[in-house]
Design brief:
By secondary structure, the chain is an all-alpha fold. The chain has one domain: MFS general substrate transporter like domains (Growth Hormone, Chain: A, Up-down Bundle), CATH 1.20.1250. About 85% of the residues lie in helices and about 0% in strands. The chain is elongated. The model has no long low-confidence stretch (mean pLDDT about 80).
Amino acid sequence: MRTKRFTKKEWSWIMYDWANSIYATNIMAAIFPTIFVSIAGEAGDIWWGYGTSIATFLVALMAPLMGAVADYKGMKKKLFTVFMLCGVVFTFFIALVMNNWRLMLLGYILSRIGFNGANLFYDSFLTDVTTDERMDKVSSWGYAMGYIGGSTIPFVISIAVLLALGYSSPIAQKFSVLIVSVWWLVFSLPFLKNVEQEHYIERTAENSIGQIFRNIGHTARDIFRRRGLFLFVLAYFFYIDGVGTIISISTAYGTVLGLGTVGMILALLVTQIVAMPCSILFANLAAKITARRALIGAIIVYTLICVVGFYMGFSLEPHQEAYQEALKAEYTDALADLTDENAIALRDQAAKYFTDRDAQGKLDAYLAEHALTAESSPDAGRVLDAFARFTGNQAETIQGFRKAVSFSTVLFWAMAFMVGTVQGGIQAVSRSYFGKLIPKDRSNEFFGFFDIFGKFASVLGPFLYSLIGNWTGRSSYGVLALIVLFLVGLVIMVAGKKEFAALDTDTSAA
């Protein structure tokens, strides 16, 4: 008889998504990338892409070996705990070094290795906590609770602190990182207490490193021999690449384009809110139309998201370039020789007001607050003259840039909503669909290969974005390149109709 309520083991497994999703939101997607880019400078999004590639590449290399070791009795929980604590500790480390972008990048790489490594074992625990019949439901509720809990509650708290203290406040920035470590550790406790490895391989005197590698080879052959399973994993390699890259680079991309940080973060909050119910609905949809058709629909939506993301940057970048060139020629270079500290501060602050609709009003407020006039400081007078000259001569350029930013901000919000409709569902159904097709006592070995496909894809996506963006000088072309990854995944899912139909039949009969 099928029970409707979740068991303690199922709830404890689901709660880990609640625990670690704050890392995905605050560190990977929304807040920390914008902080890092602001500290690292103009090439911050490029360094961010490379850092993400390094972390995922290292986990991808280790995944099959870790998976094979974890299948032995008692090992899965130990390895999960080690990687989870690695993520928690190095996230805390980031908060301690937030005045040094190189150390911040190092902390991010190591904490992401912990995050990704723990997720490998967490995903494989799905076969230990529930049955094949309930996997779609449990997996989707994991993502749903992650969105409403880990991704929304502490995220909103972080935004509130940033708004109250100011986004550039070191205290607020540190808090948005520290809350990740605390939340992650505290809400991992139910998992650590209640979830145990139910399916495993007994350890014997014959177990050795050589045997582990032979097991890995055996698992690889099993995947390649089962054509439908192989096609699914291959398609997953490509489409999950795009999903992970969009999560990782969205706010860094928007920051480089000059979109408002607070607006982007609030838009991503919409993603979390929309994603919670949509994750559950996606599982129900997969049950009605098959997982293959549901995943095809999600891939098509993501392809459209990439088109919107490309146009968001493509339409803005010419206006941004024209504005920055004019700003440098008529304002920044003209005031490069200032020596008075007050005038230098005025120059830098005034430069932030040019694209504001009430630029003069904000400048006047700043002057009043700091008791500055052209008469009290000749250098301040030079800044005011340059400000007036630039706003007069470049009024059309400023207006064009302002309108382009507004339009791209609307597109960013549209993308955020679209991502929310499919982000949790595509990941949850992919995970549960794979879990139903593999031997339970070798789940870590199989999930190790599942993870290596996903992680190597996550290396390719950010690297492709950074490489194309750096080569062309336009980040929008990096986003455009991601469409290829979704299209390849889509072609495989469509072309493998017969093989996937057989898998769906096997799944239904399970």
